Amino acid sequence: MKHRDEFRPTVVIYAGDVPAVPSSPESGGLQTRLLSGPQYRAAPVVDPHDMAAEFPTRWAAYIRRFYPDDRMVVMQFGVSERTARKWRAGEMGCRAHHQSVALLTHGEDAFDMLVKP
């Protein structure tokens, strides 16, 4: 495969919220100026470790709100009675496919309880 000469990859370096672009190839210095096109903001920083630590509590609140009986949890999610008890007590969270069932079953209410920060 032969490389084309006109291909020049561009690397954009950010200085705070503003992209910094080289002032000239010879100087190698950086200037900050806005680039044309839409400007995007970074999403708020979410700590995955905090989310993982609080998820069992969120899952337990969801289970207690929508499933008054452990047998209903067993039937809905296909888990053992022991798992249903641990979920209700907040001792552990669920796996992704269980969360998908919850979101499909209870929609926006489940999303607000399980996903929204």
What does this molecule look like?
This protein has 117 residues and is mostly helical. The chain has a domain at 48-114. Helix content is 47%, strand content 9%. It contains 4 helices and 3 strands; from the N terminus they run βββαααα. It has helices at residues 48-66, 70-77, 81-89, 96-114; strands at residues 13-15, 18-22, 30-32. It has a 3-stranded antiparallel sheet with strand order 1-2-3, with no helix packed on it. Strand 2 (18-22) and strand 3 form a beta hairpin. Helix 2 crosses helix 3 (81-89).
The H-and-E topology, N to C, reads as: EEEHHHH
Termini Cα gap: 48 Å
Shape: elongated
Question: Strand fraction band?
Answer: 5-15%
What Rg do the Cα atoms give? 24 Å
The overall average pLDDT, rounded, is 80
The percentage helix is: 40-55%
Poorly predicted regions are none
Give keywords.
single chain; mainly alpha; three-stranded antiparallel β-sheet; 117 residues
In summary, what is this structure?
The protein is 47% helix and 9% strand. It is mostly helical and 117 residues long.
Task: Give the SSE map.
Blueprint: E1 13-15, E2 18-22, E3 30-32, H1 48-66, H2 70-77, H3 81-89, H4 96-114
Antiparallel strand pairs: 1-2, 2-3
Helix pairs in contact: 2-3
